[in-house]
Amino acid sequence: MKITMVGTSGSGKTVFSAGVYGKMMRRTFEKFAIIPRAANFSEEILESHKFARDYKMLAAKKWPPGTTETKYYPLNLVYDGRSIVMFDWIDYRGGFLDDPELDEVKAAEVHANIAASNAVILFADAQKLVTSDDPDEASFVSGADAVMQILQGYSRNYPSNNLTFIIALTKADGVESKWMGTNSDFRPLMDYARQVFQPIHEIIQREKTWRGGIIPVSTMGIGNVDANGNIVGFPKPMNIEHVIAYCLGSTLRNRRDELIDDIITIESDIESIDAKYKGLWGVVKKTYQQLRGVYSDGEALAQHRRERREDIQELLKIRDAVERLEEPALEKIMMMTKRY
Predict the structure, then answer these.
(1) Domain definitions of the chain by residue range
(2) Residue 213's beta-bridge partner residues?
(3) pTM higher than the cut 0.85
(4) Share of the chain above pLDDT 90, in %
(5) Is 304 helix (H, G, I), strand (E, B) or coil?
């Protein structure tokens, strides 16, 4: 399983990753935790330190530098000490989307990685988003333009692919109270973001296998950054765990659906093949194949069906834990697709 993060310069990816450490690596969250996938304990500590570095800077009231190179992290989601699912986390260097020197080779690498990802986290700056009441201008200054370009390109080039995406409105702690709403659910912010992303609404509705939506996020939390952008409090990550939960949960549901569709197709093929072997000649042909030790088409498909059913049983073992993690996330996300 692969999750990729992309965004323009200053969109908040680096601080978001620090928030993942603060919320789900430094402590457990509802018995869930993310740990590095390592060969031994010392390697696990070393990999954890890479995430901890930026978080420690935030705790010391300093902003960490942006990502200057693409980073790959092999991780493991655990529940109550038990491994649930392994996944790779890819953090693309800041600004590749607005890099004037982005050549064809680098662009092809980026697009290939996004295409191979099970889920993509796309970043837009909430503070910049609300600086203009013109959705077109807000799209340009917040990084939403780049997000829409990725989704449009994905739709053109990979029309049959499943895609889980989440648009993270970063720095949501810094918007005015009117954007947070009376219930502090950030409904006004998400409603406006939906207007900003209106140009891709038709594409999203057309892609029947996509799952995705919008969610406001913050690593510092409300009140911990002053009006001048200075850190004045300790990090209190908001909604970051829900982004991870949705990416993992949706990907696993996509896998379940693929397996079920595969089994349905196999059942249909087996029925067709069984029909071929009816009658005396069919029995003779099947017996001859068995005597030669050759699998008939039907037997090969039956074996494939057993394997798919075993895969589903493995998914069912972790279903309850994943749903427990994903359920509150679905309450926070404003869905943009028909599938959740």
Answers:
(1) 2-254+325-335, 255-324
(2) 166, 335
(3) no
(4) 34
(5) helix
